[in-house]
Amino acid sequence: MKIRFLVFDIYGMGGTVRTVLNVTNYLAQSGYDIEIISVFRYRKVPFFEIDPRIKVVVLHDVVSRRKDDTSLKTRIANKLSKMKSKLIHTDDEGYHFFSLLTDIKLYNIIKTINSGILVTTRPSFNIFASKYANKEVRIIGQEHLNFSIYPEGMKKSIIKHYVKLDYLATLTDEDTKDYNELLKDGKVEVRKITNSIPNLQGVVSPLDSKTIIAAGRLVPQKGFDLLIEAFKIVNHQYPDWKLKIFGGGREKENLQDLITKYKLYNHVILMGSTQHIDIELSKASIYALSSRFEGFGMVIVEAMQCGVPVVSFDCPKGPSEIISHNEDGILVEDGNVEKFAESLMALMEDFETRKEFSEKGLESVKRFEIDNIGKIWEDIIKENTHSTNKQPINSLGGTIN
Q1: Is residue 13 situated within a structural domain?
Q2: At 31, is the secondary structure helix, strand, or coil?
Q3: Beta strands 286-289 and 310-313: pairing type?
Q4: Averaged over 73-90, what is the pLDDT?
Q5: C-alpha 108: how far from chain center
Q6: Cβ distance 230 to 264 under 8 Å?
Q7: What average pLDDT does the segment 61-88 reach?
Q8: How many structural domains comprise the chain?
Q9: Res. 389 pLDDT band, cuts 50 70 90
Q10: Which molecular function terms from Gene Ontology are attached (predicted)?
Q11: Using 50, 70 and 90 to split pLDDT, how confident is the model at 187?
Q12: What pLDDT does 68 receive?
């Protein structure tokens, strides 16, 4: 049975790409027939490793487009690419990337799939598949965020269309409970399948570096502005410690301005993106998660896997399902910057507690290793081994490159 994963851009960085590749690489190595449908491609070389046994289909390759191509086909494609999408939900955070051109390409490829499993990885894709996928295809929608954070329009569409999915994979117990209640009148089976971690390259941190680390997209959700506010308090008492923030995004300039405003330019460093966060974690003594909300918080698991204790806001909804407060990390009242700073300082001045949290964290995160999560995916695949052999449906008269 072919298993297809529909993603935004498999060549990019970010938590969804990382978790999709953890699972698909595992399944490919286990002998499954895996295909990734990537709507976009914005990089020549993938940010994360893709197993060579995985077939990757790119619908809109931005990297390879020839700017000097003036053929009729290209001119039509260019015109369509400037027209707003009609099939992607307008509340999708990446809606502005989609167009009428990507609508046509996505609709066409979905309509040619007549068997197997299709895994969709964002709300707009879950909705799209529930509306347009052929009936013979088993659809597993993934939810990486909690229902409460979505705009009202997206909430209404989720309730209306998710009931037509075969499965909905959620990341936390609370999300599983919420979606079971919301979708109780549909056929969809809601299952908790947490994100997984691959085998990392970094060694366990010795915890002796005066370094705090954070990582993620530089967007408001991740709360790096709150982290810098907290570190301003920390810096007064511990000027010899540094904060390194890894990642890229639209908030970079604003965050740099905040660093300059507080004269932290020798103490807080925006490091840019890295393909090997595990190696960087092995050089740090504390991980700080300052998010305003999280679907899961995979980087918490990665930090704990490297033996780095975590201080995290107890934001909705993932951190509290990973961290046991004052056992293998610290959960801070959501949004309380002063308490966050105090918790950082408590660990900074107490090596023995850091060591204790590290040892307990290393044991705790074994439940998220890919060998365990991969088996859950294999169980779902085995439940859906039936497929059809009908001929592909011709739709919209072919594709436009």
Answers
A1: yes
A2: coil
A3: parallel
A4: 94
A5: 26
A6: no
A7: 89
A8: 2
A9: very low
A10: glycosyltransferase activity
A11: confident
A12: 76
Q: With 60 as the cut, is the pLDDT of residue 308 above it?
A: yes
Structure tokens at 262: 């507080």
Residues 80-112 as b or e (16 or more Cβ within 10 Å = b): bbeeebebbbebbeeeebbbbbbbbbbbbbbbe
Mean pLDDT of the chain: 92
37 close to 59: Cβ distance less than 8 angstroms: yes
Say how many C-beta atoms besides its own lie within 10 A of residue 322's C-beta: 28
| Helices and strands of the chain, counted as H and E runs | 14, 13
Residue 35 neighbours by CB under 8 Å, 6+ apart: 2, 3, 4, 5, 54, 55, 56, 57
Are 117 and 237 contained in the same domain? no
Residue 29 tokens read as: 């190595």
The pair of structure tokens assigned to 337 is 């910057």
Q: Chain centroid to CA 248: how far?
A: 14
List of residues 6+ apart from 344 with CB closer than 8 A: 212, 230, 231, 234, 286, 288, 311
Residues 230 and 358 in one domain: yes
**What does the alpha-carbon distance between residue 212 and residue 246 come to, in Å, rounded to a whole number?**
11
Shared domain for 191 and 244, answered yes or no, is no
